[in-house]
User: Fold this.
Amino acid sequence: MYQAKIAVRGLVEFIFRSGDISGGDGFSKEAMQEGARIHKKIQGRMGSNYVSEVPLKYDVIKPDFVLTIEGRADGIITDENGVTIDEIKGVYKKLDTLEQPIYVHKAQAMCYAYMHSLNEELSEIDVQLTYCNLDTEEIKYFKEHFTFEQLKSWFHELVDAYCVWTQFEVDNRRLRNDTIENLEFPFVYRAGQRDMVASVYLAMKRKQTMYVQAPTGIGKTMATVFPSIKAMGEGYGEKLFYLTAKTIARGVAVDAFETLRKQGLHFRSVLITAKEKICPLDVMECDPEKCPYAKGHFDRINDAVFDCITHEQNITREVLLAYANKHMVCPFEMGLDVSLFVDGIICDYNYVFDPRVKLRRYFAEGAKGEFLFLVDEAHNLVERASAMYSAAIYKEDFLLMRRLLMPYHAKLGKLLGACNKELLAYKKICDSEKGYVVMTDISDLYLKLLRLLAHMESFMEESKEIKALQPHKEEILEFYFKISQFVNIYELIDESYEIYAEQINDTSFMLKLYCVHPANNLSQCIEKGNATIFFSATMLPITYYKELLHNQEEDYAIYIPSPFPRENRGLFAGIDVSSRYKARGPVQYEKMARYLDIMVQSKRGNYMAFFPSYKMLQDVYEAAMRLGLLSDVEVLCQTSHLTEEEREAFLSRFRENQEPVIGFCILGGIFSEGIDLAGERLIGAAIIGTGLPMVCNEREIQQHFFEERDGEGFLYAYLYPGMNKVQQAAGRVVRTMEDKGIILLLDDRFVTQQVVDTFPAEWADYKIVRLDTVRHELAQFWNRISDQ
Assistant:
């Protein structure tokens, strides 16, 4: 029989939620720590007739399932007047504005009252709501008397309303598993694909973490999705998360699920789109006075969700927008709620890993579920995770806020000044030569920031009436969130972090909590599920990714060899050219331009050239134009900050049987991975340089960290991230069994042993060329291809 669980708080918040979407309700998540403190303080003051933190549970038994409702009453008072359930709520709201208890708080207490009355066979009981202002510690009580029969009738009505949703889940799960049983792989297996499918299934079955290095074009998405769904059908997981770094990969996952549905699979999935990309308004403003979708959202959301999940299986952005418009609810928030009742969730990494935006309904502290994680293009997660678990504050922001808020809140102004004073002290010890200093202890600042946060919370509630501050509302809120994020990240600090202060420029001073080694933080999320598959076409060396993503000895990795004929791809390393910073100049740029000219002349078609920076891209372009090179092709230059439409327009120029083009692109940019230009749309690529990240203070800190840790500072900080970009760019050329093309690696460092050691096995056949030999080698390659 299906076993379902829900917390009392979750139950009442789901069924009884109402009103607008609004960030200013006085009960923000930032009050939770202070709330826990005030709970203990109030409980500690009570007498011997007060029992705190009493666990309570109730089982709802239905023909198809058992629903367990459980929670913990803050306190139960037993005296000569009878029994009272006490529910304590810490708030920043002024208590004189609270005329009656918030209904979901009262409902939570009523659930505990019913459970306790049932257990103790009580005919009547009192319910007390104890509200405490977290700033002043002022207390206000609301008390109400109930008979057991009143509570029983009310509670069973509540349970019946929720059981409709549970029955839906049970019916959906049964139908899903029935259709999985006979589900077959929808295509003829490509070389290596069957091995990948079998390995993924075993990892799911054994509840393991696995890394898969598999070449582009073998069908990694279906080779992970299909076995994961088969594992779900056999009870090894209940919800599948497909995590990506880029929008295009999410579309591939949506298509994979839809392909399996056409084979008869019943599987409901939702694509979670970023709030700003799904907002139906021209300007996103989550204010009920300005957004009709936010106004009364919670009054309508349950009807909207039930309508959607009972009529749709492939719940995309367009589907969410349609139902959001039908019911006038926020499509982003609706997507999050819909995710509770689907089998698969397709989303960005941050919805699982980022402490700022992760889906707390799944990944809150202490939560765990039957989750399966598929992490696509996992090579991107290392730097993304480092950024997710880092935070920074800026000294100048404190001065600005102090000037802005001091006239309205002297205490707040004083606290802002105290924080600024701490930062000023750090600034004075900052190394003027290096421009930064690594800190060992900032606990004094942390305590001041905690006090500042507490006062800002109450001030933001009160300042709604201060007209002079209304134009600065977003500015104040953004500052508050930055401080809140910094404090939250500080609480994660361990040996994986470096804390450093840096003088950015004459007017900006930064203090940063830098997560150098994100594995510990990622692991806490990964361990909330059953199994995780990290997969990519470029995860070499695998030891680097294993250490930085999970760092568990029992994890294992598989390498799927490329099935593509090596003779269809020519790999050449030009060793008489350098992109080293000290070597850059007209001589090297002219050499690069001549290499590119010889490449495009070797065979008519479309090419790309990848550069380490926009400046070098422009310098080589100007050298080519000055020398009269690349005259047989149209040269397209990538510019910064391309819109989605401009990106698509750029790629649309790479057509078969049209005028040939060469795209000058940025290595590691939007065109160096995640794009698919199969066949004659792209027949060659030149990669200038080894992709090493720009030298900066943070990279130097990272290098020192890993040098101290395992003696591989340069490799971890520079070489491995750089060569990953090279391999991704090279992967644009050969993407199917029929594709034929050339790859030019232009830098003398490509033949050094340190770099060659990072090459995939398929690159063992690279050939060394120079400007005076490359034309002959390319001609030989294309002649051999034409003779096949």
The first helix runs from residue 8 to 16. The longest strand covers residues 65-79.
